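Readers outside the structure-tokenisation community will struggle with the description of the input data as it stands. For illustration, here is how one protein appears when written out as sequence plus structure tokens:
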Amino acid sequence: MNSMTGFGRADAQGSGVTWNVEISSVNRKQLEIVANLPRELAELEPTIRAVVAAVTSRGRINISLRCASSQGTSSVLKTDLALAKQYASASSDLALALGLPNTLTLADTLRWPGVLELERPSLEAESSWPLIQQALHAALKPFLAMRSAEGQHLHHDIQSRLEKIAQLLTSIAEKSKLVPAAQHKTLVQRLQDASLPVDLSDERLLKELALYADRCDISEELTRAQSHLTEFAKYLASRDPMGRSMDFLTQELAREFNTIGSKANNAELAHLVVAGKSEIEKIREQVQNIE
């Protein structure tokens, strides 16, 4: 079991440059890979996405790629002095023609387009890919390790809550056997308290009691809930991505407990159902983090 949350970072050096790759991920129902690359390397995005998609199946994954020279900078600032002189001359001529004072400052010249340019080193996808690939695979190792480690914590937590639910279902099954008899006794007592004649051999009364007992029967819901727990155990033992399947199964288990709660007209059963629904809700929250 893997979590959808992870982070990994790695560098690869060669040919006077250092490539840095950072990978982070958060929860998403589907797989979404976002790669932030230098514009010159845009053609590598499908390849990078394919490498990451091969080892992940769910979550929003952000990949950041940066390049720096071995001297610690990846760009050089260039000044176009000739262009600046042209701007200054044009500004002076315009001020003279309009009869305005020429209040030109250095700050003004720095805002002129093209006077200052950031010259980036030439990046070629084909020659850059070997080092980028090395950094990418190195960053994936801690990224996947973190997702696996958190996934194990989720596995243990879900396992313990499923065991609690199994115990609650056992208690509910035992208590539910006593409900029809208890309700039979309560109904008869109410009729007697109302000074109404009670004939236990009356076919109509027996029919009503039988109908009530049938409405309170939760054996089918208990069977389906136990079946869901069995499926959960299979998913927990699997090495395949199971997040979406467990999410669906959690909804089905919650539906069975809701039905049991609506059918079981008994205070003790109601407390057990509430406890079970509380554990299911906690599982549902955890399942949202599973790949």
Observations:
- Residues 125-176 form the longest helix (52 residues).
- The chain has a mean pLDDT of 86.
